[in-house]
Every structure is written in structure tokens, then in C-alpha cells.
């Protein structure tokens, strides 16, 4: 039996959340569901319920997922060695086949299954379906500190988005489906590109001019020098924190994606811990929010 105290608490939360629910109804929210945020099936089921609730409130929700750790496990099982340059997986032909199998196959279908089991209408797509994410080979260069000569680094089938076919997503959202996108891209010759999931989510959010890009990861938000989570950071602060090393590693491309997204028509991006209970709902519907908000200021 639910106690009177709990009813009062729930009513308080609901009355706080209602204005926010009205604000986001009819708006687009892109959720990047990172491999580290996925956890076990119970966590996945809770994520799925939150996504379905968003849709029921009238939010046009689009999920773009990752799966880096899961790709790593599969490559290990198959005894295929993998390495990273600047946080990007060097992807030869053999590896890109596994990447596509894991991302567009098992992970995509697991998320679609969980959302549908929670009462939603999810449709799984990879960036190749409907030409959703068109891509080209990513070129990276690095200056050799000794010779000062710029070297071209070959990352194989790692791609960068050149265009996003937003119409595919708009059609599905209008028909009340929840698109679930695997971050693989389609090259000019029909080849598959492995695209970082943050980058893909940013490109999708920008193409849809989303109100929010929520980056679900395994850390509470962006931390300052004293390891305190910052509720908000400006574009200038983020650039300074990258320059002085407070933001490093995998957080750099994540922040860069958020900065690009807000420069390209996304109202704000948020980095938050996707393993926390109802992280998405708390961020959108409770005034204190969750994680770190990045907006164009
Ligand atoms: N200033 C910072 N605040 C928070 N995390 C940071 C910061 N700088 C670097 N990081 C690192 O970035 C990681 C998140 O990036 P990453 O592991 O690539 O996420 P994901 O796999 O979810 O895309 C954190 O776990 C943390 O180790
Ligand atoms: C080029 C590149 O590195 N692609 C990533 C794609 C998956 C991803 O980004 O997943 P997370 O968000 O879970 O890290 C990879 O192969 O791991």
C-alpha cells in the first residue's frame, strides 16, 4: 500500500514537472545512449520505460546508441586486435563487419525490443537505412614533434557524417514511432563507415534542430578542477577547460560534439549519468536537472 506521505511526495514532484512537460511536448529530444551507460538488462528496461514515457508526454524522442565496450568484447572473443587513435577505433574491413554486426544487429535490436516491451513503438535503423547518415572517410593528421612533419593517420573505415536525411526520422516520429539509430554511416560506394556514436548523435540532433541533445554516459557530468560536477558550462569555459587539461580523454570529443550541436541549431546539450534512476526524466522535468548543461552563451 502506498502511504499518504508518498502520495504527497509524488503529487509535489508531478506539480513541479507539469510545466516542463508542457514545455517539451511537441519538441525533439535526441538521446545518445552510450555503451557505458547501458549496464544490465534491468537498467536497459528502466531506460526504455523512460523513453516510452517521454513519447507518451508528446516529446519527439530519437535514440542514437553507442556500443563501444560491447564491440570490444566481441572483437576479443573473435581474437581480433583493436586499437584507438584519439578515442576512435582504428577500423579495418574485418573490424567494420563486426562493428556493424554488433551495433546495427545485437545492440540495436536489444534496445528496440526493450522499448517495445515497455509499450513503445520503436523502429531500429542504422545510418545506412534510408540514407540516414551519409558519410565519408575521416582524415586525421598528426604533427610529428621531432621532424615537425604532418603525418596522415589512416583509421580505415572510420567515417564522419556528411549529411543526415532528417526526413526519414521526421516521418517516423510523426507516425508515433521512436527511431533507434545505430551510428554506422553510408559511403558513396555503399560501403559502411564506423562513426563515433557521440558524433552521430550530434549530427542527428543538428539536422533535427533538436531542443535537447542528452548524452548519457557513466559519469555525473563535467567536473571542474576540484572534481565537482558543474551544473552548466558555457562554450568559452568548455574551451578553456580543454586547453588547461581539466577536460581530457573521451570527454573531449563528447564536449566538442555538444559545442558543434549548439553552434548548429540545437538549443542545449546535456552530459549526464545514464545509469542514474530516471536520469532523462530528472533532467527534463525537474528544475534542478541532472548533469551538465551546455548552451550557446
Ligand atoms: N572534466 C571531466 N569531467 C568528467 N569526466 C571527464 C572529464 N575529463 C575527462 N573525463 C573522462 O571522460 C569519460 C567519459 O567519456 P567516455 O568514456 O568516452 O564516455 P562514453 O563511453 O560514454 O562515450 C569519463 O568517464 C571521465 O573519465
Ligand atoms: C570510430 C569509433 O570509435 N566508433 C565507435 C562506435 C561506437 C561508440 O561510439 O560507442 P560508445 O558511445 O559506447 O563509445 C567504436 O567503434 O567503438
Automatic annotation (TrEMBL):
Q: Which residues form the Aspartate/glutamate/uridylate kinase domain?
A: 27-272
EC number, UniProt record: 2.7.2.8
Enzymatic class? transferase
Keyword Transmembrane in the entry? The reply is no
Q: What does the record list as GO biological process?
A: L-arginine biosynthetic process via ornithine
Positions marked as site (Transition state stabilizer): 32, 254
Q: Where is it located?
A: Cytoplasm
Gene3D superfamilies hit by this protein: Acetylglutamate kinase-like
> Where on the tree of life does the source sit, at the highest rank?
Bacteria
Recorded catalytic activity of this chain's protein: N-acetyl-L-glutamate + ATP = N-acetyl-L-glutamyl 5-phosphate + ADP
What's this protein's function? Catalyzes the ATP-dependent phosphorylation of N-acetyl-L-glutamate.
Q: Which family does it belong to?
A: Belongs to the acetylglutamate kinase family. ArgB subfamily.
What's the protein here called? Acetylglutamate kinase
Source species, please?
Aliidongia dinghuensis
**Which gene is transcribed and translated to give this protein?**
argB
